[in-house]
Amino acid sequence: MRPEQAGGATALASDSAVAVPIWLVATGVSLVALNLRPPITAVSTLMPQVQQQEGFTSTVASLLVAVPIACWVGFSGLTPRIGRELGLNRTIGFALLVLLAGFGIRLLPNVVALFVGTTVIGLAITVGNVLVPATIKRDHPEHVGLLTGLYTMSLYTGAAAASGLTLPLQHATGLGWRATLGLWAVPVVIAWLVWLPQLRVRGDTGAGAAPEGTPRSLWLQPLAWAVTVFFAMPALLFYAVSAWLPTILVDAGMDASLAGGMLSIANLVAVPSALAMSILVNRSERQVWAATSTGAVSAIAFAGLMISPVGGVIAWMILLGIGLGAGTAIGYSLPLLRSRDAQTAAKLTAMSQIAGFALCAVGPVLAGALHDLTHAWTAVLLLLLALAVVQIVSGLRAGTARFVA
């Protein structure tokens, strides 16, 4: 990271600096991030069972993935204000308890509870999405590259664990799909217990003067929009893939357990890709090479899934993991890299997450609707390939060594 960025972040944090060792920050960040994706990705591996037992169409079933993302869009603007009032650490700790409550509601045997619980889960995850990066900026701005990499890496580790272990856990326990989803509350309890010491850390306040909303001037800047679109594309692709990849492979003739394992491979490959890319791009003035190459790798993976979905699936999963993992890491880093100071970085981050996740919410639903319309997955894969091309184009602008005004 360049000196002016680190300095700005330090200035922003000066009134709320806390004496938290970096190992404790890294552990807490990693464990909380680890729990931000399993409540969503675990659903995708059980989607065929959910559709069969509840009689959902693909469009309705996709709402189980889209609703949490919609919560992120609607609640992201309020989260920094809550963090300033309660303290970042306390708000994150409370959100973990809310996440547990969402798991509990989703266990109730009716459709209303299923969607209410999913909404509660989405609200809780929003806090982690917004405030965990804020703790990184506040407590250790000099280690933003490493900690952002750990954060992104943990997101994919949690996603990989949920996609790869959910069906084996169901087979081992003999539980129904609702109770199987409830098993993912256990690591949330562990994260909350580890987070407890940070609830009493001296000086736990918000990250300085966080913005109330995104200024209109940013929304009118092409560079800010390029950063936002680039943030959105890997995230949109991730949630669309998480929702439907196992079903795509099952429809192509693959065993359901093996199909979930394929998604797990992609997520596992994404883990080191995210960490390595986060460190690399924070040491570079220009990120065009990284931004465009990650989109190209994802595009090749989607083209391969159209040509040979089962025969070349291992290769496609490896490429997909590299493209999405590294692309997501760049997406989280670009708001910092394209900003002269931490105040602007916070505003650009808010714009990226609100607008970016709004686009993400459309992805799984649109993919499900396309399948309902065409009764095949070719149109869906073509759409995902086109979105990877959009990522390449936005990366050409977002990766330049320039700052937003």
From TrEMBL:
InterPro entries: MFS, MFS_Cyanate_Porter, MFS_trans_sf
Pfam family, one: MFS_1
GO molecular function: transmembrane transporter activity
Keyword line: Membrane, Transmembrane, Transmembrane helix
SUPFAM superfamilies given in the database record: MFS general substrate transporter
Membrane-traversing stretches: 12-36, 56-75, 87-105, 111-132, 144-169, 175-195, 223-245, 257-281, 288-307, 313-336, 348-370, 376-396
Superkingdom in the source lineage: Bacteria
Protein name in UniProt: CP family cyanate transporter-like MFS transporter
Native species: Nocardia tenerifensis
